[in-house]
Amino acid sequence: MNRIISLNPGDKAVVERYAQSMDKAYKLKLLALGLTPGTEFTLVKTSPFGDPIEIELRGYRLSLRRHEAEGVLCSQ
Amino acid sequence: MFTIAVAGNPNCGKSALFNLLTDGRQKVGNWPGVTVDKKIGRIKHKNLDAKLVDLPGIYALDAWSEDERISRDYLLSGEPEFLLNILDSTNLERNLYLTTILQEMGVKMLVVLNMIDIAEKNRIGINLEQFEKELGSPVVAVSALRAGSKSIIINKIAELLKTDNKPSPVPVPSEIENASEENKDELLAEWRYKRIENIMAKTVKKGISAYAQSDKIDRIVMNKFFGIPIFLLTMYLLFWLTIHVSGVFIDFFDIAFGAIFVDGLRYVLTNINTPEVIISILADGVGAGIQTLSTFLPITFSLFFFIGLLESSGYMARAAFVMDKVMRTMGLPGKAFIPMLIGFGCSVPAIMATRNLENKRDRILSVFMVPFMSCGARLPVYILFTAAFFPSNAQNVIFALYVIGIVLAVATGLLLKGTVYKGSLAPFIMELPQYHTPQIKGAAINAMFRLKAFIKKSGRILIPIIAILGVLNSVGVLPAVGKSIAPVFSPIGISEENWQASVGLFSGLFAKESIIGTMNSLYSQGAEKEEDEEFSLVEKLGEAFVSIAENAKALGEKIKDPLGFELSEEDASLFENIRKAFNNSSAAAFAFLLFVLLYVPCLSAVAVAAREVGVVLVLLQSLYSTTLGWCLAVIFYQLVEGHSVPSIVAAALILPAMVLGIVFYARKSGRFSRS
Ligand SMILES: Nc1nc2c(ncn2[C@@H]2O[C@H](COP(=O)(O)OP(=O)(O)O)[C@@H](O)[C@H]2O)c(=O)[nH]1
Ligand SMILES: [Mg+2]
């Protein structure tokens, strides 16, 4: 199991499931944005400080904070 | 009236289409989520006469998010009879998610594929007829940039309204409806996206990546090493341009508005034999209020103009992306750096800029922090005092004042974050837009809107207050006020004989730069008084126009010598007076500057802040910063020079008591709470 927190630019990952601890409102938002289980995404770039990050999925780009998205459990 | 709601993801071009359809104007920006208020317009066309309501940009209709709840409640209220669902054609998969939800609700709607011009350019092939059939809702493809899109949309709506069968809701499979609570959300989203993937696979041909161009720029702009220097440089440039461009026009407004509304009004009223009291109220009161307001126009306009340019270029979103990690330590999102930055220019537009923050908590926190940034009006006071008392290291003292302000802003942020706002920050979701050529016209329209809002809303509060104070001033009450409040300032080293300084602080409420002018005129009183010259409007207006040319010339010189500032000869006598009044005490002078930095931001700032977060919180902020300023000034002066233990103890007790009081009130009243 991999965590978004340890991905580097260029890395690909697939969403496996959401951690139980994840904030419900945030989880619903990420689901609406297309991070459904089975979805592949690529970490495209990070801010110069390393966080937030930008990922590409379903043909578009989305920015997230690493530690907030920690509950998105994925595999590489 | 027949009502149509407009719904879609942030940045899909809703505002642009809304403007096109209503022939009206609305803010068009690059921030996801710019549209927070409910905006209403009207379609007037030979085939359709209807009211149009712009919903906030949303991704779904969950009850958990405020914007989505607003939209959901509104759609279910029954008021809108028809819905325009706007989609970004270059990002169909995600945009269709909202469409599937609307279909499950059985809303009568038209799906509008916007930005079709970009989709065509990126060679995204959409088979429209088949797409419509697979989706099961009527569809049109348009570009908000093409004028013909208006009639395409309107004619299609008119056609759909002729038949009035409501679409039947798309059913959610029962195994998902009946799934356990913990899996349901995932299953439902997965099912919707499967449906979308299916439609897309059959009807949409993928184009070329739209990100290639922006990625090239970002490789430099967001680079690990260059990213931060580029950010700092851009902000410095933004700031420098704003201050200096507005600086060219500020005297024009001051002189011209003063000539018309103060001197001109007085002249006219005198000539028609108006009683002196009324002249005083109208000219020295209301007229002076309008004049004060007018001096804020150039800086407000130019700040929002340059920010609009940067926003439309796509860089502003990146700046927020870069700053996020830094701002987060204070419990604020990345884009909250914008009001802080603007605060170094002027608190008024800075506080107005807090509107771009989605959460109330972020807006309140920012309103508490912004006034600690040393604004442009405080700088002349710093310059004069440091030149008089610290001639050999004036720069360092001024720099220290800026740093103290920043440190206190951060401390305030941390204090509120640690006590009132214990909950974690709202999760951050953001899209970095593509880079575009900056839009000059759009930025100018935008800045005009901000300007009008400022005049309308702040004028209502500011002009009456300034009118009252102006009248008090003109009947000569101020020295008495100054003398009566002087004892309050004696612990910070301002003796009671130096009541002129108290009056200066009082007049600083209008605008902090007037502290110097007031003190100067009071110190030199008894000397020659300015002769009443014959009033000539033409001459004054001429003078106003000349000031633009002069300031522009001065700007040219400043570009050659960006850090230099000069003190004129007249200042020399003022130096003498100030040194005498402050008993040659540099400790008292610094304490005074500390207080100038921290006490109530000017009334204009208070007025705009009242509009953003309410009167009570603004009064609380004023109380907070003024008490803080007083206590710190007392402690500093008494430690260095006064050595009065009771004063130190009093200040050291008042400070924590005030902080505790505010925290206690904040928690009890719930006024600070999230919503
Ligand atoms: N090329 C192109 N740009 C568009 C179109 N519609 C909107 N835009 C631009 O896309 C950006 C976001 O539009 P806006 O109306 O603010 O989106 P909103 O957040 O949905 O209200 C703005 O810079 C618009 O000028 C379109 O059809 N074609
Ligand atoms: Mg909008």
Word description of this protein:
The complex is a heterodimer of chains A (76) and B (675). Chain A has a single domain, classed as SH3 type barrels (Roll). In chain A, β4 (53-57) and β5 (60-64) form a beta hairpin. Chain A has one helix and six strands. Chain A has a six-stranded antiparallel β-sheet, with no helix packed on it. The radius of gyration of chain A is 11 Å and the shape is globular. Chain A has one helix at residues 24-32, and strands spanning 2-3, 12-18, 40-46, 53-57, 60-64, 72-75. Chain A starts with a strand and ends with a strand. Chain A has 76 residues and is mainly β. The model of chain B is unreliable at 27-36 and 526-530 (pLDDT under 50). In chain B, α17 crosses α24 (570-581) and α25 (586-598) packs antiparallel against α27 (615-642). Chain B has helices at 14-22, 66-76, 92-105, 116-121, 128-135, 149-162, 174-177, 181-203, 212-221, 227-271, 276-295, 297-313, 315-328, 337-343, 347-353, 360-369, 379-389, 394-419, 440-474, 478-489, 499-507, 514-523, 537-560, 570-581, 586-598, 603-613, 615-642, 645-669, and strands at residues 3-8, 39-45, 48-54, 82-88, 109-114, 125-126, 139-141, 204-205. In chain B, β4, α3 (92-105) and β5 form a beta-alpha-beta unit. Chain B folds into two domains: 3-205, P-loop containing nucleotide triphosphate hydrolases (Rossmann fold, 3-Layer(aba) Sandwich), CATH 3.40.50; 237-426 and 437-669, no CATH class. Chain B has 28 helices and eight strands. Chain B is mainly α and 675 residues long. The chains are: A mainly beta (76), B mainly alpha (675). The complex binds guanosine-5'-diphosphate and magnesium ion. Residues 14-15, 34-35 of chain B line the site of magnesium ion (MG). Residues 14-15, 34-35 of chain B line the site of magnesium ion.
List the helices and strands and how they pair.
The complex is a heterodimer of chains A (76) and B (675).
Chain A: E1 2-3, E2 12-18, H1 24-32, E3 40-46, E4 53-57, E5 60-64, E6 72-75
Chain B: E1 3-8, H1 14-22, E2 39-45, E3 48-54, H2 66-76, E4 82-88, H3 92-105, E5 109-114, H4 116-121, E6 125-126, H5 128-135, E7 139-141, H6 149-162, H7 174-177, H8 181-203, E8 204-205, H9 212-221, H10 227-271, H11 276-295, H12 297-313, H13 315-328, H14 337-343, H15 347-353, H16 360-369, H17 379-389, H18 394-419, H19 440-474, H20 478-489, H21 499-507, H22 514-523, H23 537-560, H24 570-581, H25 586-598, H26 603-613, H27 615-642, H28 645-669
Parallel strand pairs in B: 1-3, 1-4, 4-5, 5-7
Antiparallel strand pairs in B: 2-3, 6-8
Guanosine-5'-diphosphate (GDP) binds at residues 8, 10-16, 28-30, 34-35, 57, 114-115, 117-118, 143-145 of chain B.
